[in-house]
Amino acid sequence: MPLDERGFHPVAVSRNGVAHYAHHNEGSAAEVVKLGLQVIEAVRAELGLDSSIFWGEYQSVFTNLDKVADLPSQKGQSDRPVIERATEQLAFCQAQMVFGELTTAVRRAQSVSSWWAEARHADVQETVARTTLIAALLTALDSAGDRIRDAARELLVAYDIVPYAFPLEAPPSPSEIEQRARTAVMVKVLLASSVGSAIRRVHNDFSALSIAPILAEVSTSGRLLEDALAKPGTRRWWHNCPACGYSGNVYGDLEPRGCSCEQEWDTCPHDDRSEGVGSIQSFCCPFCGLLLNHSAELAEAGVAPETAEPSDASPASG
Questions:
Q1: What is the dihedral angle through the alpha carbons of 309, 310, 313, 318, rounded to the nearest 10 degrees?
Q2: Which of helix, strand or coil describes residue 249?
Q3: Fewer beta carbons within 10 Å, N or C terminal of the chain?
Q4: Please, are residues 293 and 261 in contact by the beta-carbon 8 Å criterion?
Q5: Are 133 and 218 in contact (CB under 8 A)?
Q6: What are the residue ranges in the chain where pLDDT is below 50?
Q7: For position 313, what pLDDT does the model report?
Q8: What is the reported pTM?
């Protein structure tokens, strides 16, 4: 080996007891990569592998990261994994992150609710513990939802699925828009579903806290459906989230749309002579962060004007 234990020390430090390299300083990162390349080259030589075949176009520069960076990229768009596989990989990573965030939230809630617990009546302590847990969980979910929305958009932009922008002289066919929307919904729902997966894992790890039923109760109460920015008296609507099953907010022209049938009142099949609402512009779930903000995406996900439900009713939950 070209390195002794002392020379290899930066690589060991970068691992620092975890499964992946953990340096964040660019200089340290470059040093670790260079040391790793030296070891790889030694192993290649020991195995007798042809250098030109093993390193390819990088044969003369692989030990110099600056020269490697200057080489033109040979990886084209066709070399990328298909978007379904890329989404699955990203969803797995997101589920791991959300699980860690929720686990931290639960432990922090337990710690905080224990402060001065001995001075409280048992009923009061139970309320404090429950309220603290709900606040910690919803804060963690809110943060995770923001990150998952950003991750979904970055992936969709990278694969040229969004934005839905086309030249005026070459408008897209309805089938092309539908295909893009179908892919966008697949990506968004799959990534957002990682939150539900994390919730179930945390629920199993802290079964005595009944985390899943608590979140279901919050969903049923409709408290997260309240929009602080909405004008007084504004009609609010909810829809079961296609990713996590909890109740999500529907935004748009939510005034009732009168039915167009000509039947008498007592024979009209529409409740209150209404066929739903005027129009829906977007859907956002406060639990998993799913955001659908295009009419074709909403249609693909089944969030349509005729399916909207008033949020003053009791929302269902999954």
A1: 40
A2: strand
A3: N
A4: no
A5: no
A6: 73-77, 312-318
A7: 45
A8: 0.65
